[in-house]
Design brief:
This is Sugar transferase. Helix content is 44%, strand content 12%. It is of the alpha/beta class and 504 residues long. It has three domains: 135 residues, no CATH class; 103 residues, NAD(P)-binding Rossmann-like Domain (Rossmann fold); 193 residues, no CATH class.
């Protein structure tokens, strides 16, 4: 294979389509995307959204007096049905389309799709309110409120179900995916490949690597995808049947070559993505500000204060108090089961490191025999964890009821008391034992927030994760905290607990 000293796009005019390299195209010509999964998916969303709005109108009609609902339509139920089940869904779909809720760039991953649905729905509320005022339509405010709020809720729920179905199709059947060619150095491309592989539901499937420098490795070298060097990019894309090119790391710092690549891809339907060296920083912290044609990437500081942070603290206390009242009737039965399994205390308290390095004692239901600490010395060679914590799938120190308490996460419920006392949060990095806590280097950054009962670590694999992955998720939470991230994590926790994923 050839050797490249820089990021160079080799021209191939024989196969370049009309419109590539900046060739003018007709104003009416529309580029057909190489990846077309979004078309049937958007059509499904259209049907679901229309059905959701119609269902909301049906809900409003079913729960209220029909005479009051149709009063503004001069007692004509046919006119009401036309407005509720035809005009309203059509108008709602049009507004969602105007807000980009069917744009392929936002479908399938991320939160932008749902944000646009919410904004579009609020626009519908404003339009309906203005129309009712302008035309002096005497309609039931309750029915309108139920229909509008119900429409938003139904649309969001059905889109969430559709997103789950798309993720299932991608992970199980490898459908609706993007075949991606990675361009960069071997190390940078492999790092991007590893990051993409962690989220198969995103639908990104690397199919090859094109090196910007050095030789392609020997055929005997083990790499997750084929590695090429010295090839024409467009012909390689066609050979691999790729529909997306990702420029990784230092390759993205070559502005002239990157611009030429973008020119060559015009009219081909192939997407161009740039994966900068800045990783694990979520969108809300990243802003692009063009200055004289130069797109400057600004990275804001994590927002660990302000109104949002205050709301998180209030939400922690309120939900913890409600949770405590709900689980109190369960404690006598659990306490009896623990006592019958092994004489000793019901609760287990251990020193942990909290926010800003402050030590506190965490509350847990006891799941191990009282001599567990003495037994630990004889089990160190059977440790299945690669990090600071001792993990063993069939730990003999855990009694039978304790295994069930751990699998169902009931043993963590007493930590609600730590939340009420302000020592922990509902969502955050897991608190590490004080005697085992290696808080040097990057790990120390997790102390900027209070530890949580649940977190990204728990909803992403729990005990099945490596120590490096657990630390990476904790640091991602600290760097990208938001209320939406907290609520999403709590929602995912329900599924993890119900299906007992990664718990032992």
């Amino acid at each position: 294979m050839g050797e490249l000293d820089s990021f160079e796009i080799l021209p191939n005019h024989a196969v370049a389509p009309v419109g590539a390299s900046g060739v003018p195209r007709s104003a009416w010509q529309r580029t057909k995307r190489a990846a077309r999964w979004h078309r049937p998916y958007a059509a499904i969303l259209l049907l679901l959204d229309a059905g959701a709005v119609a269902l909301a109108s049906l809900t409003a009609r079913a729960g209220l007096d029909p005479d009051k609902i149709t009063a503004g339509f001069h007692g004509q139920p046919g006119l009401f049905n036309l407005m509720a089940f035809a005009v309203m869904p059509a108008a709602w779909l049009l507004v969602l389309w105007g807000h980009g809720a069917y744009d392929r760039r936002y479908l399938g991953s991320g939160t932008d799709e749902f944000k646009r649905v919410v904004r579009g729905s609020w626009t519908v509320v404003a339009i309906v309110a203005f129309a009712a005022f302008a035309f002096k339509v005497d309609v039931s405010r309750t029915s309108v409120g139920v229909a509008l709020v119900g429409g938003l809720v139904y649309v969001l729920v059905l889109r969430y179900i559709a997103r789950k179905g798309l993720a299932f199709a991608r992970t199980r059947f490898h459908l609706a995916t993007h075949r991606m060619l990675l361009i960069g150095t071997l190390q940078e491309a492999l790092e991007v490949h590893a990051a993409i592989a962690r989220d198969p539901a995103a639908g990104l499937v690397p199919v090859g690597i094109h090196l910007i420098e050095g030789y392609a490795p020997q055929p005997s070298t083990v790499t997750p995808v084929p590695v090429h060097a010295g090839r024409d990019i467009l012909s390689l894309v066609r050979e691999l049947n790729a529909d997306t090119i990702a420029v990784c790391g230092s390759a993205s710092a070559e502005p002239v070559e990157l611009r030429r690549l973008a020119w060559q891809l015009e009219g081909t339907g192939i997407d161009l993505a740039v994966a900068p060296q800045l990783t694990d920083i979520a969108g809300p912290r990243v802003h692009i500000r063009p200055i004289e044609g130069i797109p400057l990437l600004y990275v804001e500081e994590p927002k660990l204060s302000g109104v949002g942070w205050l709301f998180k603290n209030v939400l922690d206390r309120v939900l913890a108090l409600i949770g405590l009242l709900l689980v109190l009737p369960l404690f006598p039965f659990v306490a009896l089961a623990i006592k019958l399994s092994d004489p000793g205390p019901i609760f287990f308290r251990q020193p942990r490191i909290g926010r800003e390095g402050k030590m506190f004692r965490v509350w847990k239901l006891r799941t191990m025999y009282i001599d567990a600490e003495e037994r630990l010395a004889t089990l160190h060679d059977q440790n299945e964890s690669d990090g600071l914590l001792f993990k063993m799938k069939n730990d003999p120190r855990i009694f039978r009821v304790g295994k069930w308490l751990r699998a169902t996460s009931i043993d963590e419920l007493p930590q609600i008391l730590n939340v009420l006392m302000g020592e922990m949060s509902l969502v955050g990095p897991r608190p590490l034992p004080a005697e085992d806590g290696d808080f040097l280097g990057d790990v120390r950054r997790r102390l900027l927030v209070r530890p949580g009962i649940t977190g990204l670590w728990q909803v992403s694999g729990r005990s099945e994760l490596s120590w490096d992955d657990a630390v990476r998720l904790d640091l991602y939470y600290v760097d990208n905290w938001s209320l939406v991230l907290d609520l999403h994590t709590m929602w995912r926790t329900i599924g993890v607990v119900v299906f007992r994923k990664g718990a032992y």
